[in-house]
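--- STAGE predict ---
source: upstream dedup step, 1 unique chain passed
mode: sequence only
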Amino acid sequence: MENSEGVKIESTVVTEEPLISALDIALFVVIITVAYFWYFKRDKQSSSSEKKPYTIQPSSLSSIEQTSNSPFIKKLKSTGRSLVVFYGSQTGTAEEFAGRIAKEGARYKMKGMVADPEECDMADLVEMKEIQKSLAIFCIATYGEGDPTDNAMDFYEWLQNGDADLEGLNYAVFGLGNKTYEHYNEIAIYIDQRLEELGATRVHEIGLGDDDANIEDDFVSWKEKLWESVCSHYGIEETGEESNIRQYKLVDCSEVLPERIFSGEISRLKSYENQRFPFDVKNPYLSKIAVNRELHKSGDRSCMHIEFDIDGSKMRYDTGDHVAVYPKNSSELVDKIGELLNADLDAVFSLLNTDEESSKKHPFPCPCTYRTALTYYLDITSNPRTHIMKELIEYASDPKDQEKLKLMASSTPEGKKEFHEWILRDNRNIVHILEDLPSVKPDLDHLCELLPRLQCRYYSISSSPKVYPKSIHITAVLVNYTTPTNRVNKGVATNLLAQLIPTNDELPQPTIPIYIRRSQFRLPPKSQTPIIMIGPGTGLAPFRGFIQERDYARKEGREIGEMVLYFGCRKKDEDFIYENELQEYVANGTSTKLHLAFSRDQPEKKYVTHLLEQNADELWNIIGEKSGHLYVCGDARSMAKDVHSIIVKVVMEKGQMTNSQALNYVKKMEQQKRYSADVWS
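--- STAGE serialize ---
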């Protein structure tokens, strides 16, 4: 007997509606959509896991040095730490010193961490007193004309403008400076005094490191006495445990896809292929070399005039600025390290910080090959510091090599003498050490952890943007010299630049990463203000830009003031650079006078300082009677100091002042930016 309802339904479907209703279609679409997303999401996750058998992801500098949202105080408390070491670093040395102090803290039962003040709210220092036996140490470099480093600027300004109550904060300060500069360790001294003014307790006297002498020795000596003061202050004792614990662990990245591997970029992966404005220290511009020509007329030395093409980059510079050039190590030295350590330089690896709380996850962009790390990221040509000697001991199989390393790593008078003679005097780098101590075979990943970062090189810009808005010019001497061990050491940047010769055909032009660093070395605001420029050798560089700019103003019909240039070199027919240009500027009236000193063109050597003494009346007329500006560029160690002494003497004699009054007069000139120096040691 048939179901009448079923028959009715069947009849209805067949006779009154389509075979598939709208509702059926809607339900079908929903089912298919859900199935589609479920299937492909699962497939994507599966394929993703298949493609990522590694644990380290490449990242930009923002993740390499990622700032945690957690305040440093919270980190200290949550991880049971009592020691924090802040660093103000421009070249990496202060950061390296900070890391060594934090590492040694374990020997005194003080678990430490390193912190970048730029990534911290330094107002949290008031909470340090809440942590038992806490200590804040500051490794602070003074940069430029007595300025804080970029990453310490905010902290410096906070100390200047704030009035926080830092009672209960225990601290110590180590400064990094250079005695050839007038403002020797000025920032570290200020921070040390200001912390005390705000109520903090100085646990150990300030240490002042002199990079012109032996800053490593200064640091080690201060550090030893620091721990003595720490033990006395807190009533603790050294545990005696060695702190040769690795900060980074090796991660094999052999299966990382090639497009995810760093190949020399400073921060962002593929940044040289996809350039993005603005360009700075973390994001340099890959500039073409437009011109590279020799300036010396004869002799065995070389001085290059190089022009970087910045057309289309949106980069802007001012006369007197510096340009930073990112170099790379020679393939010869890199290959030598691979050969000495029997290592595969093309293996892909990463170094991951063992401290999960650290904001610095990697010591340099990772993952990359060992060849890339040694070529672009690590300094393999400078003299290694004593802590590297200490870390190499365990890798020496020959007892003699082991004892030599132990001696140089020690702080005994004998050890310091050996380190000074064998490393510093003989100018050995890590390659030379591995060659001369053949039983020392460190793991290459550990060596990469120990070596400092390769730093960019700064050059005074020798052009004016008014005349050359689309290019940046530099004047650079090729650095090559023979060491006491009869090895030839080569300047990393200048030897690379010497190889980058532009071609006249359709081949791609050579390139190099650069960025512009602002300077306070500026022409007077008014073009009619008279100026004196003192720049022997490549110290002429910024003044070439100054003269170009004044010449541009003259051609526009503006009044320009006197321009007196003092230039010196060895021989007129050998290294008188830009001779024709300078003579032309005198001829057309842009430059008023050109005082030249050729030190070796006569029996008795003659330098620009001799000419300055002879022209005391002219000097005083411009800087005293006409309130002109005076500029010095070049060697800080002797020339700049001698010039300063001569200026003080001229002010005394021609201005009829006492020595004290003359010193104050020159000091006021500096404060008014009427006496400016762009010097190096």
